[in-house]
Amino acid sequence: MSLTGSYDDANIFAKIVRGEIPSVKIFEDDAVLAFMDAFPQSRGHALVISKTSKARNILEVEPQVLAELAAATQKLARAVTAALKPDGVVVTQFNGAPAGQTVFHLHFHVIPRYEGEALGRHGGGMADIDDLKALAAKISAAL
Ligand code: AMP
């Protein structure tokens, strides 16, 4: 899938928003959901999505929703940083398959980076669910 096309209601994040598949949540409100990436590129890799928008990417998103996502991304990055004490944090977002996007529901990545630790592969191995729950609890406690 590229930059053109229509929103697929069966995408994995739409299913997470509807509660049809599980996710390890960090925080949510009526507008946004932050949860752990199941195939993390580093310890504490988390994602933020809109619960209301059907934007697939940043080009399509309503400015008000983008503002909500930006604020939630900052909130998540602050909590991840406070909880896990990384040496740096990457905030990123991909648009279209050639740009690296694999789930076509707009999302922001918050990826803590640790000195001397290489970044894991995008779409690498699945994390242990109990590890993700422990990280989410730690990050939530730092909100
Ligand atoms: P992107 O490649 O930018 O579209 O990012 C999609 C992200 O979603 C990747 O980092 C995946 O590891 C992550 N991901 C895919 N499926 C799930 C899932 N069921 N729960 C949590 N994260 C997921």
UniProtKB/TrEMBL annotation:
Give the domain of life: Bacteria
Motif extent (Histidine triad motif): 105-109
Q: Which GO terms describe its molecular function?
A: catalytic activity
Q: Which intervals hold domain HIT? A: 12-120
Which InterPro entries is this protein grouped with? HINT, Histidine_triad_HIT, HIT-like, HIT-like_sf
Q: Active site at which residues?
A: H107 (tele-amp-histidine intermediate)
PROSITE patterns per the record? HIT_2
Q: Where is the signal peptide?
A: none
Q: Which Pfam families match?
A: HIT (PF01230)
**Can you cite a GO biological process for this protein?**
nucleotide metabolic process
Q: What is this protein called?
A: HIT family protein
Q: Which organism is it from?
A: Caulobacter sp. 602-2
